[in-house]
Specification:
about 25% helix, 4 helices, binds coenzyme A, eight-stranded mixed β-sheet, 8 strands, alpha+beta
């Protein structure tokens, strides 16, 4: 049966290795800042605690924020801007370092794609040119490079726009 609800209209999703839950609670903001402020790419892009705190908590109706919980602990964050360019844009995706490399990112991206497919034919992401692991991850998820945008986030660093498209 074809689902007709809007993309990213769900509040909680149980995936095999984690739970994805809409919204960042006030008490989670500080933990997320701590998780990401020393982690690349954000560390290398000089996104300090104040910038991250504001991004995680400010009013932004087109930004769908989903926290990731693993074993009832905060493990990461996915932020999707939608509507965007004929499909959603993965604007922020990170897991705490102790949760890397065990398949959670792949599961979450597959879920994001299922959501995108409800209404769109594109899913977008931007990855920093120095973030080779991130680029490899998105390529394995089926994204293709579209082009580099120099200095988009930080001077001296390029961002690669990537697209996953289906018919
Ligand atoms: C990128 C990220 C979300 C992937 O999630 P994940 O759960 O670690 O990924 P999975 O376990 O499903 O898949 C592993 C693949 O992710 C990629 N990857 C990227 N960074 C990685 C990391 N730090 N550790 C392990 N794998 C990483 C690799 O391609 C790896 O494949 P490989 O085994 O062939 O090297 C996660 O590693 C992360 O939060 N990294 C730091 C932040 C980041 O780079 N975010 C994306 C760009 S903004």
């Amino acid at each position: 049966m074809i689902e007709t609800r809007p993309s990213f209209g769900v509040n909680v999703v149980a995936l095999p290795g984690c739970m994805v839950k809409r919204g960042v609670a006030a008490g989670e903001v500080g933990d997320l800042v701590e998780m990401f402020v020393e982690l690349d790419p954000w560390r290398r892009l000089n996104m300090d605690a104040a910038v991250l705190r504001s991004y995680f908590s400010r009013n932004d109706p087109a930004l769908h924020r989903y926290v990731v919980n693993r074993d009832h602990r905060l493990a990461g964050l996915l932020c999707v801007r939608y509507p965007w360019l004929r499909g959603p844009y993965i604007e922020f995706f990170g897991l705490g370092s102790e949760h890397h490399g065990i398949g959670l990112g792949t599961q979450i991206m597959a879920w994001a794609e299922r959501e995108a497919r409800l209404e769109s034919k594109n899913l977008w992401v931007i990855v920093s040119s120095f973030n080779h692991g991130g680029r490899r991850f998105y390529e394995r998820c089926g994204f293709s490079p579209i082009g580099e945008i120099s200095g988009l986030v930080a001077a001296g660093s390029d961002e690669l726009l990537m697209r996953k498209h289906w018919f």
